[in-house]
Amino acid sequence: MVTIGGVAALVLLILAVLLPLDQSVARAHQRIAHKQADLAWMRSVAPRLAGAAPVIAPSSQRSLIVVVDNAAREAGLGTALTSSEPAGQGGLRVRLDNAQFDTLVGWLARLSQQHGIRVETATVDAAGPPGIVNAGIVLHARQ
């Protein structure tokens, strides 16, 4: 009886603990391999993407705050842009609340490409429903 109980306990240990653990490790190895392949691909296309969109220098002498505010309104972020304040020499700190993440990223890309404005720092936090964020961003005009 003790032998049968010992064998049953060993089989139960193998089925309940060791097999799921082994499967979990195998899935983790697959995820790592997939992420390494993604990283290798990103590194291979990075030089092409870096040269694809030249930065255009600002075409006017409008102030940074005016350019950023106008671009935010054009992108549909006018109501999300809650504050703007100077941040050092040629910098602007902006706060956006309840903004669409995709719209925010597109707006930042357009600021860079069309106006030569770069993101120095950014803090983005989830703000409720998926895709809605709060962001604090420090922008600088390229010299």
Question: What does it look like?
Answer:
α2 (64-75) packs across α3 (101-115). This protein is 53% helix and 25% strand. The longest helix has 49 residues, at 2-50. A four-stranded antiparallel β-sheet has the order 1-2-4-3, covered by helices on one side. The N and C termini lie far apart (84 Å). The chain has three helices and four strands, in the order ααββαββ. β3 (117-126) and β4 form a beta hairpin. With 143 residues, the chain is of the alpha+beta class. The relative contact order is 0.12.
Which structural traits does this protein have?
elongated, 4 strands, 53% helix, alpha+beta
SSE blueprint:
Layout: H1 2-50, H2 64-75, E1 81-86, E2 91-100, H3 101-115, E3 117-126, E4 132-141
Antiparallel strand pairs: 1-2, 2-4, 3-4
Helix pairs in contact: 2-3
Give a short summary of the structure.
The protein has helices at 2-50, 64-75, 101-115; strands at 81-86, 91-100, 117-126, 132-141. With 143 residues, the chain is of the alpha+beta class.
Tally the beta strands. Answer: 4
Q: Spans of 5+ residues with little confidence (pLDDT < 50)?
A: 55-59
Radius of gyration: 26 Å
Overall pLDDT level: 87
What distance separates the N and C termini?
A: 84 Å
Strand order of the largest sheet: 1-2-4-3
- Alpha plus pi helix count: 3
Q: Which structural class is indicated by helix and strand composition?
A: alpha+beta
What gross morphology would you assign?
elongated
User: H/E order of the elements?
Assistant: HHEEHEE
| Proportion of helical residues | 40-55%
**Beta-strand content estimate:** 25-35%
Largest sheet, in brief, is: 4 strands, antiparallel
